[in-house]
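Allow me, if you will, to draw on your knowledge of protein folds for a short while. I have a record of one protein: its chain in single-letter code and its fold written as discrete structure tokens. The full record is reproduced below for your convenience:
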Amino acid sequence: MNTTRTTTVTCPNCGRGNRIPVAAQGRPKCGHCGQPLPWIVDAGDDDFVDIAENATTPVVVDLWATWCGPCRMVSPALEEVARDLAGRIKLVKVDIDRNPSLSRRFEVQAVPTLLVMDQGETVARQAGAAPAPALRSWVERAMAARQTSAGG
């Protein structure tokens, strides 16, 4: 069974809908205007490795729960960051109640728990909600620190 799961993303530049794979190499671009697209997908115990760990783009992982008030507050802020950093990050959302293996693996004690992963390695972690500007700054610092340590 080699069916590729896709998601539909609206281009923030031209407003066109684009179907993009949830797991792929590279960075999605709009088929109409060519601008980078925000890459926001759900993942679980069965497909996390393909979607998040094998990604060639840095991944922000949102470990959340449906019953969590702060999770509902941080979700739109994370989506805003994903739009702002389109072409630079992939946002992967994981419902910890539906994916207990990932919850255990990442030792989730509080939700939301946010991770920045680069090539399968966790490079930053924080728990709790924050506004979009603070989240963006946190993600950019994590990516910059990773580039500095990887580049020399």
